[in-house]
Amino acid sequence: MDFELNEEHRAFADSVRRFAQDRLAAGALERAHSPEYPWETAQMLAEQGLLGIAFPEEDGGQGGSLMHAVLAIQEVALVCPKSADIVQAGNFGPIRTFVEYATPEQKERFLPDLLGGRKLISLGMTEPDAGSAVTELKTSARQDGDDYLINGSKIFSTHSPEAELFLVYVRFGPGLDGIGSVLVERGTPGFTVGKPASFMNGEQWSQLYFEDARIPARNVLLGPGGFKKQISGFNVERLGNASRSLALGRHAFNIAREHALTRKQFGRELCEFQGLQWKFADMWMRLEQAQLLLYRAALEGEHGLPSAQSTAMAKLACNEAGWFAANEALQVMGGMGFSQEALVEYCVRRIRGWMIAGGSIEMLKNRIAEGVFGKSFSQRPPKPKA
After folding, report:
1. What is the pLDDT of residues 153-175, one digit of tens each?
2. Tens digits of per-residue pLDDT, 305-325?
3. Percentages helix, strand, coil for the chain, rounded to the nearest 5?
4. HSE value, Cβ hemisphere, 13 Å, CA-based, for 365
């Protein structure tokens, strides 16, 4: 069994690495701490072909694979962590679901700007009372002539302050089969984007309000019964989360390693102290273990969608390894690691959020256990007996 990337993948990763070092290294710290979305960088990445990497060429994509997208995120993140968010937004998350299920007319209207780095799409899934239990969502879509009226609210939507298009999970009717999704454009009457709020990692989000927001029927993405299709696409999104978690852990590891090779205390380089050697050994081992699970899930995607089990294991492993490595790197660097003059504390804060977003680590463990036992375990209380 070969655990190395093939020659084509290595060549692709090398080309992305060279581009990142030439064009993204300068200004990486400033980008990380700026609340503004880096539109200029997004358009540069689009020109380089790093948005829509695994999308069909007929849709404006590059015709590559999930592995190419994973490698691009990792190589960019190792140079400029903030820019990796752009690569993620152009390859995973709601844009991936959109490309998978949108009509040709919908693609023609929205994809050129999304893949050109000129506009963003945001996912409206989580609600005040429906987080991990997403099937309990209440935002409704009611047909009214040739239109649909949307009512409800969404929270924690990534890129919601900047997005022009929103892929919104809605309820067309009761039960699981009543759930689908619609496309809502900013500026739609009855649709309001609330005041931005900040996460601990500095990322901003806005609550989305729908009060008889009227959309045309052509903006329905997946009608009633579309939930299972949406969730299968959401499993793929976890690879983008996993890739960034692991890559930012490596980014922090690399900074701390250089620090340990050059910083001296008590007349010795830090790397000569056994206590720190063990920290780096533990960090490296966990990062390498998680990398294998991520590559396995991505390679499954070479022949279709990766399994929910593989993506759950990859995300869990990368979340935990990335967090461990970044947190240990911060400790190794002491005050400098804790300072915003270095990117280590930024990596810690970013990875911590990804342990919640895209499926919390607790929910991932539940999903993995279902694979172990070959059966589903409902988290809901049993129904009372008649």
Report:
1. 999 999 999 999 999 999 999 99
2. 788 899 999 999 999 999 999
3. 55, 15, 30
4. 7
